Amino acid sequence: KKEPWTMASLESSSSSACRVVAQTTLERLVEEFQFDASLAAAAVDAIGDKGDVESAIDWLFANGAEDRGGAVTFKECPHISGPLISDVSFRRRCVDCGADRQEVWVCLGCGETRCGRYEGKHALSHYEATGHHLAVGLADLSTWCYRCNAYVEDARIAPLVAKLRELKFAKPVKPRDDDEENDGEDDGEDASDGEDDGEDASDGEDDGE
C-alpha cells in the first residue's frame, strides 16, 4: 500500500488527473530517487508542471536536499559544438543581482556566475539572451543544458567540472609564520645539545676505563 503523502497541490487541485500526476511524481522522487518525503512533496508543490521530475529534482538540490544516490538521468549532450571556456572560477555571487546565492550556476560559454531559476532566474535569462546553453551548478556540480532541458555529461565538460570540484573542496594551506620557523631552529639546537651530551657521556666512559 502506497503511503498517502499530502501536499498543497494535491489537496487544492480540482483536477483528479493533476492529482494523479502529482502523486506519481512524488512517489518517483521518494521511491526511485530516494529523496525525503516531505521535501519531495514541497518540490512537487513548487513546480508548475507536476509531471516534470527533472524540475522537481532541480528544486530539491537547490533547496538543500541530500543526493542519496538515486538514478538521476544524465544524457549525452548533442549541442556541444561551439567553444567552451578554457578555465573556471568558483564564485557564489550572481553577477546580475549581486546576491550571494545558494543556487548559482557557472556559464560554460562565458564563465560568469548567475542565480538559478528558483531564486533570481538570472542564469535562465542569460541563456535566453545569449544562447549560452551549458551551466554547472555549484551546489552539486551537475551540468545543465538549457537546450536539452536536462542534466548532461560529456568528456569535453569533465575537465571544467573537475576544476570546479577542486576549487570547491580545496583546503587552504596555512602559511608558516616566523615563530614556527624559529621553533624549528630551536629544536635543531636542542638536538645538537643532545649530541653534545652524548659526547660528554662517552667521555665519562673513557674516564671509567
Mean pLDDT: 77
Strand order of the largest sheet: 1-6-5-4-2-3
Per DSSP, what share of the residues sits in E-state strands of 2 or more residues?
Answer: 5-15%
Shape: globular
Structure in words:
- With 209 residues, the chain is of the alpha+beta class.
- It has 7 helices and 6 strands; from the N terminus they run ααααβββαβββαα.
- It has helices at residues 8-12, 16-32, 37-46, 53-62, 122-130, 158-169, 178-208, and strands at 75-76, 104-107, 113-115, 134-137, 143-145, 150-153.
- It has a 6-stranded mixed β-sheet with strand order 1-6-5-4-2-3, covered by helices on one side.
- A hairpin with a 4-residue loop joins strand 5 (143-145) and strand 6.
- Helix 2 crosses helix 3 (37-46) and helix 3 (37-46) crosses helix 4 (53-62).
- The mean pLDDT is 77.
Would you summarize the structure shown here?
The protein is α+β, with helices and mostly antiparallel strands and 209 residues long. The chain has helices spanning 8-12, 16-32, 37-46, 53-62, 122-130, 158-169, 178-208, and strands spanning 75-76, 104-107, 113-115, 134-137, 143-145, 150-153. It has a 6-stranded mixed sheet with strand order 1-6-5-4-2-3, covered by helices on one side.
